[in-house]
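SAMPLE LOG
Freezer: B-3
Tube label: C17
Construct: single chain, 170 aa
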Amino acid sequence: MDIVEVILNDHHEQRRLFALLDEMHASETSSLDAVWKRMRILLEVHAKAEEELFYPELLELGKGAGGKDSAEDETTDAIHDHNEIRDAIADVSKHPTGTPEWWAAVAKANEANGDHMAEEEREGLTDFRQHASLELRHRLGLAFSIFESQHAAGIEPQDVSPEEYVRGHG
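STRUCTURE (predicted):
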């Protein structure tokens, strides 16, 4: 169990579910609702788990990677991205399922999430692999998986100030 692998596995599942939605344009709204609910919960719980478990440790150990000068820069950007993803998720719920507006909002959520995952994989996860011990990665991987299991039904999403987050964990 390794937090980097757990996060990467979640990223794979997120990409898979967005691809599934892409293939469901002619589906019943109840089917779309079911897949979107699973996606929404995965995105929200994943972001919260990263904020609770991964990013505090990255701030302590990281040096910067993938074009970022510091762990603070990586973390500030990631928390900002999480807020954009939360806002995109909220926008989906403003539209009737299956309408063109709903699909446009889903596409916006996919884009925000895809951009975030690519940056995180290139920056924060690389930085963590380079500076965290295998023991820490294992311990956090277990904690991350447990957190996701404990919140499998979802959480109440809340935007987080990136600057306050970094100050509070630095």
